[in-house]
UniProtKB/TrEMBL annotation:
It comes from Umezawaea endophytica. It comes from the Bacteria. The lineage of its organism: Bacteria, Bacillati, Actinomycetota, Actinomycetes, Pseudonocardiales. Residues 1-68 form the HTH merR-type domain. SUPFAM superfamilies: Putative DNA-binding domain (SSF46955). InterPro entries: DNA-bd_dom_put_sf, MerR-type_HTH_dom, MerR_fam. GO terms for molecular function: DNA binding; DNA-binding transcription factor activity. Keywords: DNA-binding. This is MerR family transcriptional regulator.
Length: 125
């Protein structure tokens, strides 16, 4: 199938599919005219790549995890698990930072409300 059909079947833009190829996440064969051709296997692969992106993984990390699906083995599975665990830990640390930032902002909002209340009280409203 050509790239447009793959895009239609997967719901992924042609531009994204080209990007996946540039990143080494997807491959195609080329016709003499230069047109990309894909097999039905790539439909499943694109769906898998989309799930990995939805989980917050970068294209670089996805490239590191894909061997687990391409060449299943205990070693590849362990490597993928380790990499996904690292990404989860990174996301958890980022969430912790965001919670601290939100809590600091909540403190500033509370201080502003208290200050505003004193201004309203002082003006007699």
């Amino acid at each position: 199938m050509r790239i447009g059909e793959l895009a239609t079947r997967t719901g992924v833009s042609v531009r994204s599919l080209r990007y996946y190829e540039e990143q080494g996440l997807l491959s195609s064969t080329r016709a003499a005219s230069g047109q990309r051709h894909y097999t039905d296997h790539e439909v499943e692969r694109v769906a898998f790549i989309q799930r990995l992106y939805a989980a917050g993984l970068s294209s670089r990390t996805i490239a590191e995890v894909l061997p687990c699906a391409e060449s299943p083995s205990e070693e590849n599975s362990d490597a993928a698990l380790e990499r996904m665990t690292q990404e989860r830990d990174r996301l958890s640390a980022h969430i912790d930072d965001l919670v601290r930032t939100r809590d600091a902002l909540d403190g500033l909002v509370a201080a502003n409300r208290a200050h505003r209340a004193t201004l309203v009280a002082a003006s007699g409203q």
